[in-house]
């Protein structure tokens, strides 16, 4: 694995049953590459939470995953409404998801805290009415 | 405890997993909110849940969960069953409610994660 591998995924809007397909694909690819199970799980969980967020809040978007020898770098980009208060959004238990989402098992306000927990670096850039870009790094 | 032991204790129906029912389960997690499950990273766990949709299978896949128990007699749809089989995740359905199902497994020595600080 000398070169960088770049994977790009389109995350479809409002298709809750398909949410997680991109994370599932990355998980099996990393596994095949021989990355340790713990790192694979960290990447899969962090990306899955991000993917769910894109479906719930932002009408989908794109995810780029750059895999190198040292790390797995994820860039999640959407053209959604943006995050009003990032600090609040990072708090465990804080959620702006509607009840319909909660009845599907999400919207507990643990998405971003989980993404932070399982990654070595998490950055969020968000502009109201323009969109949000989340980058995450997991060191191998 | 194995997947088969869990099935016996809960008097559950095994929907998927007959071929790998002897796999060991070390810890358990009971939740309806999938992000609560995703906050809990343990090896070879069983998930007990009252939620019954595709994201339960996805969550289990991401976490390497070996077995899902649907409480209150809930039954997964065919698409969920197909995916669980593909990912080798056992699916059980029990008539017990969440509290009782967790209690019965706890009584037999199965434990959850540490207390949150």
What does this structure look like?
The complex is a heterodimer of chains A (140) and B (117). Chain A has a single domain (5-139), classed as Heat Shock Protein 90 (2-Layer Sandwich). In chain A, a hairpin with a 3-residue loop joins strand 2 (61-67) and strand 3 (71-78). Chain A contains five helices and five strands; from the N terminus they run βααββαααββ. Helix content of chain A is 34%, strand content 27%. Chain B is α/β, with parallel strands linked by helices and 117 residues long. Chain B has a single domain (3-107), classed as 3-Layer(aba) Sandwich (Udp-n-acetylmuramoylalanyl-d-glutamate--2,6- Diaminopimelate Ligase, Chain: A, domain 1). Chain B has five helices and five strands, in the order αββαβαβαβα. Chain B has helices at residues 3-10, 34-38, 54-63, 78-87, 98-107; strands at 13-16, 27-30, 45-49, 67-70, 90-93. In chain B, helix 2 links the parallel strand 2 and strand 3 (45-49). The model of chain B has no long low-confidence stretch (mean pLDDT 94). The interface between A and B is medium-sized, with 27 and 21 residues.
């Amino acid at each position: 694995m000398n070169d960088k591998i770049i994977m790009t995924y389109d995350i479809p809007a409002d298709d809750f049953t398909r949410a997680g397909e991109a994370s599932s694909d990355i998980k099996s690819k990393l596994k095949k590459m021989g990355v340790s199970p713990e790192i694979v799980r960290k990447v899969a969980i962090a990306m899955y939470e991000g993917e769910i967020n894109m479906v719930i809040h932002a009408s989908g978007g794109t995810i780029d995953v750059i895999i190198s020898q040292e790390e797995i770098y994820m860039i999640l980009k959407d053209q959604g409404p943006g995050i009003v208060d990032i600090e609040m959004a990072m708090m465990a238990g804080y959620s702006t998801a509607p009840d319909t989402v909660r009845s599907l098992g999400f919207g507990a306000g643990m998405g971003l805290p989980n993404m932070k927990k399982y990654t070595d670096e998490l950055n969020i850039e968000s502009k109201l009415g323009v969109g949000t870009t989340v980058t995450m790094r997991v060191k191998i | 405890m194995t997947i088969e032991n869990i099935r016996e204790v809960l008097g559950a129906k095994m929907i998927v997993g007959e071929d790998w029912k002897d796999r060991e389960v070390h810890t358990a997690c009971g939740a309806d909110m999938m992000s609560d499950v995703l906050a809990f990273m343990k090896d070879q766990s069983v998930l007990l849940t009252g939620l019954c949709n595709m994201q339960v299978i996805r969550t289990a896949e991401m976490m390497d969960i070996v077995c899902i128990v649907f409480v209150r007699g809930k039954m997964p749809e065919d698409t969920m069953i197909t995916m669980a089989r593909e990912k080798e995740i056992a699916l059980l359905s029990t008539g017990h409610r969440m509290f009782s199902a967790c209690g019965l497994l706890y009584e037999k020595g199965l434990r959850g994660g540490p207390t949150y600080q």
